[in-house]
Amino acid sequence: MAQSARGALELSTSSSRARGDFRPRRERPPRPAMMTGGVASKVKPAASKSTDPFPWDVSEWLGCCAKPEPLPMGGCVLRNVLNDIEQKWLYEHLGSLPDPNHEDLQGLRSTATREGHATHNVKNQPQSFVTWMHPYSRKTNARQKPGRFLEWAGQLMHALAPSSKTHRIDSMLAQLYAPGGSLNKHRDEALSWGLIVSLGSPADFRVWADPAGGGEPQCTIVRSGDVVVGEWGQMPHAVTVLNEPPPAWWASVQHFGVQRRCSILLRQALSDKQQRKMAETRCQKLHGCSVAALSKQTGKDEEYLRWLLCQLNLNY
Fold first, then answer.
1. 260: number of CA atoms within 13 Å, CB side?
2. Across residues 72-87, what is the average pLDDT?
3. Which of 186, 211, 230, 291 is most deeply buried (CB count within 10 A of its CB)?
4. Which CATH architecture has domain 8-16+66-270?
């Protein structure tokens, strides 16, 4: 999603070792409650059993996971949430949702070779793969709502970060990265708590405790199957994909040639009213006029201009 307005500002959202080993499905005994940082958290049980190779019942297995690693502002990293079978199933399930003729998929096909990627993604930024209600534009390329996955992510986020409980998850943005792909330091302006599922090659993930981005960052390597929870609207963060191989299952899925990592971001989208307000504020700041006036000047649709304005990285 490497677009810009007036050629000056970049988009902020187009942000075990790389495992090739096979990890059998874990036995996860049912638990009525889990402990997170010493505080018991009750999690809503799954409504019904499923044959999907995915740990839908958060209460059944979360208490068996390793202790979360803390991040600033109440965030955390939870390791090995998904094993290889679950990772592959999730990636393929989400990959079946978009319209194959959508411009996002066309963009990924155009950058599938090294030459195409160098030509069409010069800054090596993440590219959109699957979207359900983009957090800024509210646009969707999925033909079906990933409702159960959104609910799972919400339960997991609320259990790991109690401060997030006032925020629901209704938005999903899955992006693909090539080796070395990155997002520079930024905050997700006007957004808040969210959960990231990492699939594929490991990434160097950095966060800053200072909302202004000062001081030294906390650095961690996020690997395939890990989950990261954070207050992304307040906590500056940056990511760079390492030049390390993805898990073995990656070779058997459609990963569009050069792509090596999938980052699935789940959070609460801006409301239509919030989106319009942000776009108007930014349009006045950048262009000294309203979105309607800019539309007349440029011939661009107002909806498209709001989408573009809301995604600009104006943080740093």
1. 25
2. 96
3. 230
4. Sandwich (2.60)
